[in-house]
Amino acid sequence: xxxxxxxxxxxxxxxxxxxxxxxxxxxxxxxxxxxxxxxxxxxxxxxxxxxxxxxxxxxxxxxxxxxxxxxxxxxxxxxxxxxxxxxxxxxxxxxxxxxxxxxxxxxxxxxxxxxxxxxxxxxxxxxxxxxxxxxxxxxxxxxxxxxxxxxxxxxxxxxxxxxxxxxxxxxxxxxxxxxxxxxxxxxxxxxxxxxxxxxxxxxxxxxxxxxxxxxxxxxxxxxxxxxxxxxxxxxxxxxxxxxxxxxxxxxxxxxx
Length: 256
Fold this sequence. Notes:
The protein is α+β, with helices and mostly antiparallel strands. The protein contains 4 helices and 14 strands. It has a single domain (7-250), classed as Creatine Amidinohydrolase, CATH 3.90.230.10. Strands 7-6-8-13-14 form a 5-stranded antiparallel sheet. Strands 1, 2, 4 and 5 form a 4-stranded antiparallel sheet that branches. Strands 3-11-10 form a 3-stranded antiparallel sheet, with no helix packed on it. Strand 13 (239-244) and strand 14 (247-250) form a beta hairpin. Helix 1 runs antiparallel to helix 2 and helix 3 packs antiparallel against helix 4. The chain is globular, with a radius of gyration of 17 Å. The relative contact order is 0.20.
């Protein structure tokens, strides 16, 4: 069911967005050569406890997951594109990691992701992240009253394809509110002018993700981590966005 939020409810959602942004900022600062993925998950877990928030991941068990997720953070490294299950892995110089985090604060959920290069950057990884960010920026720019879901999807797909990437549509954006995943689904490619009309009060996560040389994925033996079929690297960037009569509001915007 698609729900519209009142301006007052969107204001209430800001606390969750701010907290998710703060956690990702802290995790980005902590991401370095020699840091273990389990350490990053522990930082996020500690911040959840201190804030009195609730994890959206730890008990999450959708049909595509092998078991309850069991952690509070997704850590997708190198060829892992999405849903990376934190495990005993120590980050190496040159790794590319995507950090995806969602939390419930005072009954409202926000969801966001960022991609980070650890230590020495490869030019192709920098470009991958830049194009993923441009895809998100283009999508948010179209998230205005009077457009349609297809305009958001088409913006993501266009930027990716114009820059030489193929785009996977198996997983994409989604409604956010009292729960982490709701309607509408927002594919990462589509046709402009199609789909649900955008109205003030819609709140959803927009999350482009790209892989360097493929659009195909497979599930890791851990039952959660989705990896590129050819072993190429992936980037994933996401924001929770509210549609208003005055334009889109990025609820999970991080401090510059």
